[in-house]
From TrEMBL, chains A, B:
The keyword Nucleotide-binding does not apply. It comes from Paenibacillus endophyticus. One of its GO terms (molecular function) is DNA-binding transcription factor activity. GO terms for cellular component: cytoplasm. Keywords: Cytoplasm, DNA-binding, NAD, Repressor, Transcription, Transcription regulation. This is Redox-sensing transcriptional repressor Rex. Modulates transcription in response to changes in cellular NADH/NAD(+) redox state. Belongs to the transcriptional regulatory Rex family. The lineage of its organism: Bacteria, Bacillati, Bacillota, Bacilli, Bacillales. The keyword Lipoprotein does not apply. It is found in: Cytoplasm. It comes from the Bacteria. GO terms for biological process: negative regulation of DNA-templated transcription; response to redox state. Homodimer.
Length: 218, 218
DNA sequence: TAGATTGTTAATCGATTAACAATC
DNA sequence: TAGATTGTTAATCGATTAACAATC
């Protein structure tokens, strides 16, 4: 149990490794080196080796990493070797999209309950799940042992939903609303607000009338 | 034009500042200090001052930052003081969701064209936009001076769509598909794949049977 | 003036990369 | 054995934070 404190940067790379490795399996590639992985992802091979080495010795010197074995190990690290249940609040288009994505995903993360407080939504069905009113959130989370909450409601309602998730005892929240949410330190919050993403892409646009290649060497 | 190389970390914080500042405007707050901003966002005030100082002197000593003025400046930095046109490929639920979000957003980023190659989608209407076939992508991007592309198609089709966006000459791509895309260096690519986000949240879950508080002090 | 807060330099901290012995 | 590639230590690089003079 050498548990050095693992940085967030490392944790965010693990799912990316998993993605590439899953592609490898599909193409029936059995072994991959940090070099190959690095090429695919534009990452330094030493970084990849170091990332993995935080958690154990998964490779073989002179050979590389066994793809299937490494997938198994990364799944363990990310704790998705077990099924993780997820609740979603907000049965709009985005909520629908996530439920569908989820259906086809082979990770062990399952959206098992959907909530919405709009009368027009309650009782409708998404992907075999009946949309429940918010009043049932706390009980359902407890019953089903749901551990993560997803927020896909308008910004103005997001903090309120977050509060209810916290009350219900989820350990993490994935927030799609463009709002800054306050939750206790022990609850992990992650923002997936696409307006932020778009704005940061805009930064890299070239302003009209400016030359593209000013000392842009690296 | 002091153009030190600005790090990606800085760029990704700017939209967050903008979000808080917009909230301030709504609450008719006129001035904000780096201290206040830092409290709201759990960031070090020195970091915020430094981030802003890369781009100019926007504050007043002893006073703080004028909210409206700072918004204007950050918009300029992010190049959203002008309207930035965006194209979206993939008229599914996620595509719908993004178009709707967009409608209500007050940033100057506008989805002005939607594409999809499924016969059942072509010709339908999303948010006043008619869904066009992929064959019209290149011409439409040129005509409308579209600069950013959003990909909301299944993973397997994503690289193909990316290629077409690149051919059409977009400067940036926001990819929602769980796939690793290859594009030329001059095109900015940003991944917004929610499965990655979910997996990295899972890392922070507490494994059943493990105590939560093992040297978790900081 | 006294108090507050910026912009910026210097110090610290942490993450990435290079290098290489171990070994398959 | 020779070639390849890991795991890991040391070196480098870059980002965050502390501190403080300038000044509103």
């Amino acid at each position: 149990m050498k548990q050095t404190k693992i940085s967030e940067a490392v944790v965010r790379r693990l799912p990316v490794y998993l993605q590439v490795l899953n592609e490898m399996v599909n193409r029936e590639i059995q072994t991959i080196s940090s070099q190959d992985l690095g090429n695919k992802l534009d990452l330094n091979p030493a970084q990849i080796r170091k990332d993995l080495a935080y958690f154990g010795e998964f490779g073989r010197k002179g050979v590389g990493y066994d793809v299937v074995y490494l997938i198994e190990k990364i799944r363990q690290i990310l704790k998705v070797d077990q099924t993780i249940k997820v609740a979603l609040v907000g049965a709009g288009n985005l909520g629908h999209a996530l439920c569908n994505y989820n259906k086809y995903s082979k990770d062990n993360m399952q959206i098992t309950a959907v909530f919405d407080d709009h009368p027009s939504k309650i009782g409708t069905s998404i992907n075999n799940l009946t949309v429940l009113p918010m009043s049932e959130l706390v009980a359902t989370v407890a019953e089903q042992k749901i551990r993560i909450g997803i927020i896909t409601v308008p910004a103005i309602e997001a903090q309120n939903v977050a509060n209810q998730f916290v009350e219900a005892g989820v350990e993490g929240i994935l927030n799609f609303a463009p709002a800054i949410l306050r939750v206790p330190d022990e609850v992990r919050i992650q923002n997936a607000d696409f307006t932020r993403e778009l704005l940061s892409i805009a930064y890299y646009l070239v302003r009209e009338g400016e030359s593209q290649d000013e000392s842009d060497l690296d």
